[in-house]
Specification:
The protein is of the alpha+beta class. It has 13 helices and 13 strands. The protein has helices at residues 3-11, 18-23, 28-35, 52-57, 60-74, 83-90, 141-152, 154-166, 171-178, 187-196, 204-215, 266-282, 299-320, and strands at residues 15-17, 41-45, 48-51, 80-81, 102-106, 111-115, 118-122, 130-133, 136-139, 222-229, 232-240, 243-248, 288-293. It has a four-stranded mixed β-sheet. It has a four-stranded mixed β-sheet with strand order 10-11-12-13, with helices on both faces. A three-stranded antiparallel β-sheet has the order 1-3-2. The model is unreliable at 258-262 (pLDDT under 50). This is Transcriptional regulator, AbiEi antitoxin, Type IV TA system. It comes from Nocardioides panacis.
């Protein structure tokens, strides 16, 4: 790609418009070749492109971020990225359904329409609702979290509000973001999500597991519970009474080269995890323990897992008390 055009793309976060390619001297023939089968560009949206090499090394969130940037370039009307689009630019972990459309909010009476893969929201916002991310103005973390709750429901709202708290937003700031929304659609579920949020959840899986534990009706779990014995220390995702709950994310068993966080052979990681669990089960008079993996957080598997967790917790109560 021409150096001048690559510089333009870099300023836009990896995307560029057709008009910018023309301004950098690209001919119709060059552009047709670049966007054809096996060409060096990919079409991010109509009239907006990215280098194929960049596109192919990005994960789903990274590609979605390019779609958000491309939509921002194409927007003639005033508006800012919001909802899942703001979330990805702000560095908030996202769920797949948040990324199905690009979301833009502009001032106006509440309402929405979807056009060319972009959902346009009409909703008031003030200067305190804004932040700068990715070199552009976006709706800030607190506003984004409660917007996601209104848009996608209580569960997604808790995931978003947990993330916002973890990223430094205060609970009063989340509550303040709700204040102008008294009569806005679905504000009730946003309020419930703020009330249920806990910044101790370290990722989406831990947020979803915490909701399952709440559903058991055994009390509000303590997040990131610390267990110590002498010089030994461990943090556990969730605790209720004498029972510990852990979300087993695949990432800790995958090496860094393949997108995980393991810095030792997998067999060693598994052995150390077993020793850690054995210690947690016996330390300070003993604990019960439940582990949940990603696939158990959804659908019929979730219902089976809830039954298992309830039984495991009941066994812990019978053995160790509350």
């Amino acid at each position: 790609m021409r150096p001048e055009l690559r510089a333009v793309a870099a300023r836009h976060g990896g995307v560029f418009r057709r008009s910018e390619a023309v301004a950098c001297g690209c001919t119709e023939r060059e552009m047709k070749t670049a966007t054809g089968p096996g060409g060096s560009w990919v079409v991010v949206r109509r009239g907006c492109y990215a280098e194929r090499a960049l596109w192919e090394r990005l994960d789903d969130e990274g590609r979605y971020a390019l779609r958000v940037r491309a939509a921002a370039l194409a927007q003639a009307r005033h508006g800012v990225p919001s909802h899942g689009s703001a979330a990805v630019l702000l560095g908030m972990p996202t769920r797949p359904r948040w990324r199905e459309l690009v979301h833009v909010t502009r001032p106006g009476v509440t309402g929405s329409r979807t056009e060319n893969g972009v959902k346009h929201h009409l909703a008031a916002y003030g200067e305190t609702d804004l932040a700068t991310a990715d070199g552009r103005r976006v709706l800030a973390l607190a506003r984004t979290a409660v917007d996601l709750a209104r848009e996608h429901g209580f569960e997604d709202g808790v995931v978003a509000c947990d993330a916002a708290l973890r990223m430094g937003v205060s609970r009063p700031a989340l509550a303040a973001a709700l204040l102008p929304m008294t009569y806005w659609p679905h504000v009730t579920r946003a309020r419930a999500a703020v009330e249920a949020a806990d910044g101790g959840a370290q990722n989406v899986g831990e947020s979803l597991l915490r909701l399952m534990v709440l559903e058991l009706g055994i009390g509000r779990p303590e997040t990131q519970y610390v267990v110590t014995e002498g010089s030994r220390r461990a943090e556990v995702d969730l605790r209720v009474g004498r029972h510990l709950f852990e979300f087993d994310g695949r990432v800790k068993y995958v090496d860094r080269e393949h997108g995980g966080v393991a810095d030792r052979p997998v067999t060693q990681v598994l052995w150390e995890e077993k020793r850690r669990e054995d210690w947690l089960r016996r330390v300070h008079g003993g604990h019960g323990m439940s582990r949940v993996v990603w696939d158990e957080l959804f659908g019929e598997a979730r219902r089976r897992t809830l039954r298992r967790l309830r039984e495991e917790y009941r066994h812990t109560e019978q053995r160790f008390g509350r």
